[in-house]
Write a structure and sequence with these properties.
binds iron/sulfur cluster; Dimethylsulfoxide Reductase, domain 2; 21 helices; 8-stranded mixed beta sheet; 3 domains; Barwin-like endoglucanases
Length: about 575
């Protein structure tokens, strides 16, 4: 199929704000989520060249989907964009090239005009052999009455962990979120919707409601009996729960991996090779006069970030007027129009541009007229900007980690930033997605010496990217059971990995119904950290913050730490560990 050259495009996937809002307000089974995620953006010239009316068939290495087409000049000719989610993952390969990270940006796909039906979520779940499509969502009962106001509440959604929200409650109903972005507001105001409120086990193919003790008994049996279980997720819960997860992995001689394996894992691998130069939000607000967003789209994925870090007035830099902004991306993202310099780069060629910049700052001659689709003049302009900044910060996104070069991009970028510190001060902060993915890395690191994909099969911790990483373990059918905590791998892992989850026993601990509940054999409800449960989380700049409890969890529902403590005790007893 890749031989039909006129039909071959470079696929980019990424987060969008409508995806986040629809997921938090109505859930992933809603029409709103379908409308936000099941679509493909193409340049209008490509749409007419292929004779596309309103939909297209997208053919990837592992499958094909039919999607509605949105014509957009933000996407250059030859490039297409699909929001991250089940439709994109369904067609993508699970091969990670020994890194643990599948390639989900700058991937070649074939595209054809079609009149076939748009692929539904049900089509995808059936194709990956979900155990059933049954779900029993409930609204958490809410008592209204006493008016309460909580100040300085950290937002439990993205890695910015904005800790200045004012949350107003009418009894247990959240009525107002002041300071939070649109996704944060959707999360707080709808925290009671689409909830798992009762424990379930799968029996005869159906979900059967059971007591919490019974669910924990079956869950512990599955995990204790497994020869090599995968304990996955952890980025949407607190550090205290992650600590228990590490102990559970050690007791079961399994693997604990977190979602960084499919986002900033390559950033961590790059830093392991060459070190890093980090900073904190406080330092950036006070000092940074140059802000670079490279392969990240904060307007959609971290909606308060620009106002907080770029517009804010610091002691030495008086807000946006004294701060230059550079955006480097494949697409014209919303912040590109707010930047002093926008550099449109060709998909998957970041490494070349970084290398050229390293040459330019050392005054080495660049012979090529164009590098990665960027003119030599623009490269020199950018080199001058980074060299003359008093304090520069590069916020790096998954645009750098998810293309073919993966951690090599990051190694090269870190070297560039290290070299820039010979002239000036410069630092890097990865734009972390889930609110505590940074915590998941830190907890794993301080307890085991490794930040993710930690394998205890030999009785001591080890990490081998491409071997002990979740996508590889699942795609290679290595693990024989899975515990999924506060995560939705069926929505975010490539097809082959999801298919293996359909083949093994799966325990899910989550507050809301997810696509992963369709492959679960045990579902245990939990309280939402940051709303119903307390705990510690790490912001993207590795600053720990205390997550607040605003209301009690629903009746009969425990927090992750309590559930995992009981589960750990039961598994220890079954495996004869004292
Ligand atoms: S930017 Fe992120 S942490 Fe801040 S309010 Fe929005 S979703 Fe929450």
């Amino acid at each position: 199929m890749y031989l039909i050259k006129d039909n071959v495009f470079s696929l980019i996937t990424g987060r969008t704000i409508t995806q986040g809002i629809s997921m938090e307000s109505e859930g992933k089974f809603s029409k709103e989520y379908f409308k936000a995620v099941a679509l493909i953006e193409m340049n209008p010239t490509d749409v007419s060249k292929l004779g596309i009316r309103d939909r297209a068939k997208v053919i990837g290495e592992c499958g094909e989907v039919v999607l509605p087409v949105k014509a957009s000049n933000d996407v250059p000719p030859g490039v297409v964009f699909i929001p991250m989610g089940p439709w994109a993952n369904f067609i993508l390969s699970s091969i990670t090239d020994g890194t643990g990270m599948p390639t989900v940006k700058a991937v070649r796909v074939a595209i054809e005009a079609t009149n076939e039906e748009v692929t539904s979520l049900i089509d995808i779940l059936k194709a990956v052999r979900a155990k059933s499509l049954e779900r029993i969502p409930q609204e958490r009962p809410i008592k209204t009455g006493e008016k309460k106001v909580f100040e300085d509440v950290p937002c439990p959604f993205c890695g910015d962990l904005c800790d200045y929200l004012r949350i107003e409650l009418d009894g247990e109903r959240v009525v107002r979120n002041i300071g939070g972005c649109a996704i944060s507001t959707a999360k707080f105001l709808n925290y009671h919707k689409d909830r798992v409120l009762k424990p379930f086990i799968r029996s005869g193919g159906r979900l059967v409601e059971v007591s919490l003790n019974e669910a924990l008994e079956v869950a512990s049996e599955i995990i204790a009996k497994a020869k090599y279980p995968l304990l996955y997720g952890w980025s949407n819960t607190c550090n205290e729960a992650i600590e228990l997860g590490v102990e559970l992995a050690e007791v079961t001689r399994g693997v604990i991996d977190n979602t960084s394996t499919i986002c900033h894992g390559p950033t961590i691998l790059g830093a392991q090779e060459v070190g890093s130069v980090r900073s904190t939000f406080g330092t950036i607000i006070q000092l940074a006069d140059l802000v670079i967003f490279w392969g990240s789209n904060p307007a959609h994925a971290h909606a308060n970030h620009y106002a907080r870090l770029v517009m804010s007035e610091g002691k030495y830099v008086k807000g946006r007027k004294e701060r230059k902004v550079v955006v480097i991306d494949v697409r014209r993202t919303p912040i590109a129009s707010m930047a002093d310099l926008f550099i449109r780069i060709e998909p998957g060629r970041d490494y070349e541009l970084i290398t050229a910049l390293r040459m330019a700052i050392k005054d080495l001659e660049i012979e090529a007229k164009e590098i990665a689709g960027v003119s030599k003049e623009k490269v020199l302009e950018l080199a001058e900007m980074v060299k003359t900044a008093n304090y520069g910060i590069a916020f790096i996104g998954v645009g750098l980690t998810m293309t073919g070069a993966k951690h090599r991009n990051l190694q090269e970028l870190i070297k560039l930033v290290q070299e820039l510190n010979e002239w000036t001060k410069f630092a890097i902060i990865p734009m972390r997605g889930h609110y505590n993915v940074s915590g998941a890395n830190n907890v794993d690191l301080w307890l085991t010496g490794y930040p993710y994909a930690v394998d205890f099969s030999r009785g001591f911790p080890k990490m081998i990217p491409g071997v002990t990483t979740a996508v590889d373990l699942l795609s290679n059918s290595e693990v024989d059971a899975a515990l999924v905590v506060a995560s939705d791998p069926v929505a975010h892992l490539p097809r082959r990995a999801v298919e293996h989850l359909s083949e093994i026993p799966v325990v899910v601990i989550d507050a809301k119904w997810s696509l992963t509940t369709t492959v679960a054999d045990v579902i245990i409800p939990t309280g939402l950290v940051g709303i119903e449960c307390e705990g510690t989380a790490y912001r993207m700049d590795d600053i720990p913050l205390r997550m607040k409890k605003l209301v009690d969890p629903p009746q009969g529902v425990l927090c992750d730490t309590e559930i995992l403590s009981i589960l750990l005790d039961k598994v220890k007893a079954k495996r004869g560990v004292v």
